[in-house]
Design brief:
- The complex is a heterodimer.
- Chain A has a single domain, classed as Amino acid/polyamine transporter I, CATH 1.20.1740.
- Chain A is built from 13 helices and two strands; from the N terminus they run H-H-H-H-H-H-H-H-H-H-E-E-H-H-H.
- Chain A starts with 10 loop residues before the first helix and ends with a helix.
- In chain A, a hairpin with a 2-residue loop joins strand 1 and strand 2.
- Chain B is an alpha/beta fold.
- Chain B has 13 helices and 16 strands.
- In chain B, the strands form three sheets. In chain B, strands 1, 2, 3, 4, 5, 6, 7, 10 and 11 form a nine-stranded mixed beta sheet that branches. In chain B, strands 12, 13, 14, 15 and 16 form a five-stranded mixed beta sheet that branches.
- Chain B is globular, with a radius of gyration of 25 Å.
- The chains are: A mainly alpha, B alpha/beta.
Chain lengths: 367, 410
Amino acid sequence: MNTYGTGKLGIAEGIALVFSLVIPRLFLSGLSNVLQESGQLLWLSMIIYTIIPLVVFYMMVYVHNNISGDIVAVCEQLVGKLGSWLIIVAYIGMFFGNSALILRQYAEYTLITALPEVEFQLVIIWYAVSIGIICYLGIEALCRSAYIVLPIVLGGLAVVFVLLTPYYVVYNLTPWQGNGIMVAIRIGINDVGFNLGILSLIFLSSAFQNTKTIKIIALYVTGGAVMLRIVFTLVYTMVFGVEAGAEKAMPFFEMARLVYLNEYFQRIEALFIVVWVISGLLSIAGFLFIGLYLIAFLLKLPTLRPIVPLGIVIIANLAMLPPDIGYAVQVDQLIVQLSKIGIYVFPVVLFFMTLVKKRRKKTCTAS
Amino acid sequence: MYRFLIGFIILLSMSILLTGCNGAKELDKVGNVIAIGLDACEEEGMILVSYQFAIPQGEGSEADAKKATVIITNKAATIAEALNLVNSQISYTPSMSHTKVIVLGEELARKGADEILAPFMRYREYRGSMFALVAKGTAKELLDKNKPSFNTSMSKYYEQMLGTGSYSGYYLRTSLHQYYTRTKSHSGQPYLTLVAINPESGEGEISTEKVPGGKLAGYKAGDIPRQGGNPLEFAGTAIFSNNKMVGMLSTTETRILAMLLGEYPHGFLSVEDPLDTKLFININLRLGAKPKIKVERVEGRPVIHVSIALEGDISNIGSGINYEEKSYTSLLEAQITKVYEQQIKNLIARTQELDSDVAGFGYYLRPDFQSNKEFDDYQWNDKYRHAEVFVEVKSQIRRSGLMLRTVAAD
């Protein structure tokens, strides 16, 4: 028995973990980018790019129910050893890429918002060390930390939404079709990579109690994430409008710093910097952990702790590669786009291979 | 033991690294800018930037209040350069984290405000919630002559002044965020609070004449006939069109604008007594509901329907006529309706002449379009001038103050 698939995690921990994987880009520039593309109809894009991964997740659950073993064993049975390596290495790349780019953006935005005089490398190192500690402590520590932080993050968001009420301009949500329905659908189909984290439930299935647990988690997370994203987008659009909203590098930070009730209640963003830094840390650690987890499975390692420092060094270096924040945001978009392969290609291939295998088995049994 | 040691090292490093001291500055080494004044300069490509610094030691008593701020004005090519120059003139590190207001001089605002105000949205020390004002005259003069009479803290003065504008509706609280989002939206034009130094001669200048049935004329900041108090006054609104300031609204016009924006908590209105025109009646008036505004396209031409519901309490009847009685009350209500319908029509006509949809009617037209492109192609800001306007005001007297009826003296 390895040390990273404990089978003890329940629904709440799973929800918190996957939430921390799919939500952090709300705090980054991703929202501004998709808002510029979809306009007021961004909510439709969000529904689409949340539902598609859920469907894909159920396809993977079907695969898991019909083919025994962990993800590596499943892939080996369906597409052979080489195919299995190809798929798992691609997923490792996606999770590491997500981890590195989110790390870079959080480090950059920490510099801009809170610590302008600190060396960039020092911030990266500080984040990397914190992430390393979280990953070293394991999936349970990660999930349970996320579980503690989740209500604070959600509560913080709700408080900001309420306090911004005086700035709401409902007509900013019109024209209802934004930049066009077809554009919104295209963005929804294109940006499924934002929800790659949902598939982590398949990869980490041995850490959870059973299949029913991960199904429930997936439903709660997709439902919750899409609701949160839609509410966030609506509030953000009402406050800034599409045009000004698309300019902002940090939508949530901008919302928090706009809060002004009176001379006694203002400048509350410092509180939210802490909240989003913690949720960012958990997210980066989550992506990294899943990447390491897949490496450990692929190489059949008894524990993944020794490779945590290696993972940290890789993502820290990857994070420092883009020369500036603009380029980092571009690469982040590219990673989100590449993550599409992890949603559209591999699960679909595995699903059809499972169907084929099942049919063959039936034919053999009949004959 | 091994785990204890690791735990101790982690806790120790966290206590050192997480205390937030990195980049910290001692309070007495920071020069907090309360207000920034921006003026046009005769020299091409230069602006005058005035920084009003707070001196915390100076705050606390009225006598010290006058010494509580220092104003330094630099001529510079950019605001950032002015900040660099200020650094050579004071022993503190300038900080804009507590800046309350940005004041634009009239000349600069008329030349174009976007290129001056937009950069403020980018740097982290400035925030969208900062108040933005336009000074009649120069911003420098305004900052120099501003001597609050009641407040001992200049920053509190600015916040309180802008927070209490809703008492009369004679000036609005305008922020950088609101200005910026308006400029980007293509759905309306921005506006900023108008401020000015009053000569305190007791002589004033009326900007908006009384409408028939009304008793109140409108003033702009600096023109209110008064003596005493702080020379600085907040009154009226500076309105913009395509990035440039194109006009000023008076106090009474600003009140109407507040109504159209749905930001009119209450204010005292004086109307002619319908039965004795020499006398007047005061009503404490408020919006009965959010204004109902509908904008539609009829054969390509915009048509604006404005419906305002007002309700109020009688606060003064000079004539001794029993306006509390139903038949008289309706006379009074009709008088209020007449006054406000006229004022609203006048304001909209004036802003149409100036191509400045400060009431944001364009926002109400947005649902009429399928997509952003369609709306942008319609060019609302150019069409506003040609819009047909229908105004309907409903007034209702709800209460008669502390008196139930008025009994004639003889």
